[in-house]
Write a structure and sequence with these properties.
Number of helices: 3
Distance between the termini: 26 Å
CATH architecture: 2-Layer Sandwich
CATH class: Alpha Beta
CATH topology: TolA/TonB C-terminal domain
Strand content: 25-35%
Structural class: alpha+beta
CATH superfamily: TonB
Number of domains: 1
Order of helices and strands: HEHEEHEE
Shape: elongated
Number of strands: 5
Length: 106
Amino acid sequence: MMKSKVHAVLAAAAILLPSALMAQDGRTPVKQVRPAYPQLARQAHISGSVRVEVVIAPNGKVKSASVLGGHPLLAQTALEAAKQWQYAPAASESSATVVFNFNEYE
């Protein structure tokens, strides 16, 4: 009983949002890195989504990234993956929100 309550609380802590893969100015990712599912999160049956905002340089590389929301056990691996993404080059810097979905059953 207690274990199911803990799992319910942990699941509620995760922010569930639809995936958003395009930059706000329409830049398309040309390289996407999928985050590794943290072993501790998998063992605790934690699933959910992590929202990461990336700032994209004109050359398409991610200049910086920050976590906007999501479960703390999933956030670091999502942040590391987002920093490895690359987008189509553009004339100016832009930003995008990337949502990584973690599902222990995938």
